[in-house]
Amino acid sequence: MTGTDQVVRYAVEDGFATLTLDSPHNRNAISSALVTQLLEGFERAAGDVAVRGVVLTHTGNTFCAGADLKEAVDADPAAAADIRTQWMVRLLRTVLELPKPVIARVDGHVRAGGMGVLAACDIAVAGRGSSFALTEARLGLAPFVISLTLLPKLTARAADRYFLTGEKFDAVTAERIGLVTVAADDPLTATADVLTELRQGSPQGLAESKRLTTAAMLAEFDRSADELARRSGRFFDTPEVIEGMTAFLQRRPPRWAAEPSAPAETTGSAGRATEPRSAE
């Protein structure tokens, strides 16, 4: 892949822009190119008065596989992690602050950072064959930054289970625990039905309604995003993360040390009540 490759497609039809993640070589992983082009697409949609909302979807069998670990390993771990976490904060805030509804249409796998992007969307439609997992703990990480969008959507017990175990769950479970709005046999038709309903609202009404539903999450971004980004960045050059990412790329089980060696914490921690935390 070169720096000029298009990994996000943009199209407008019947008043809605569609942003399509199209990076099959890395299963639509969160790379510098993908984030840059997504931000450009959202900015373009925000500035087009003919666009009423945005559909975020994908090619292939994966909506988003999380961080591009190949890109992460090839760079200086600490510096690359800092850049990635800042990009993730910006991407999630962009989705939340966009004055138009964002509808995710998923028909495949969603992992790690992709879960945070999905949770940032206002409405999420998933095909019944889709699967979801928060795999950070299995890499020696934690879902720091993406918890800012995930924790407000998930039930508390579901967050406990899936943050800690990293196990996969299906679309019906995702609907039950609040991650997706609709688990559908035909996500294309189900999304079209949602768009039909959204067309009944005025642009002003949609924008102000979205401000109400995202206000608490954005307030938590203001309180906790910088701290969570710092915590995430400090983890990326620890031995456990290096081992976890190396094992993942080598397709082998990680060899964890007998005693965990997490980096030292600074003061402050986001509480469950306001639901912060996350990772890429």
Describe it for me?
By secondary structure, this protein is an alpha/beta fold. It has a single domain, classed as Alpha-Beta Complex (2-enoyl-CoA Hydratase, Chain A, domain 1). Helices cover 46% and strands 15% of the residues. The protein has ten helices and ten strands. The chain has helices spanning 32-46, 69-74, 77-97, 113-120, 147-153, 156-165, 171-176, 187-198, 203-235, 239-249, and strands spanning 8-13, 16-21, 53-58, 62-64, 102-106, 109-111, 123-127, 131-133, 169-170, 182-184. The strands form two sheets. The chain has a six-stranded mixed β-sheet, sandwiched between helices. Strand 2 (16-21), helix 1 and strand 3 (53-58) form a beta-alpha-beta unit. The radius of gyration is 18 Å and the shape is globular. The two termini are 21 Å apart.
Descriptive terms for the model:
6-stranded mixed β-sheet, 4-stranded mixed β-sheet, 280 residues, globular, single chain, 2-enoyl-CoA Hydratase, Chain A, domain 1, 10 helices, alpha/beta
How far the N terminus sits from the C terminus, by CA atoms, comes to 21 Å
Q: Compute the gyration radius: what is it?
A: 18 Å
Query: What is the CATH superfamily classification?
Result: 2-enoyl-CoA Hydratase, Chain A, domain 1
Q: Can you give the helix content as a percent range?
A: 40-55%
The largest sheet, given as strand count, sense and whether it forms a barrel, is: 6 strands, mixed
**Poorly predicted spans:** 266-280
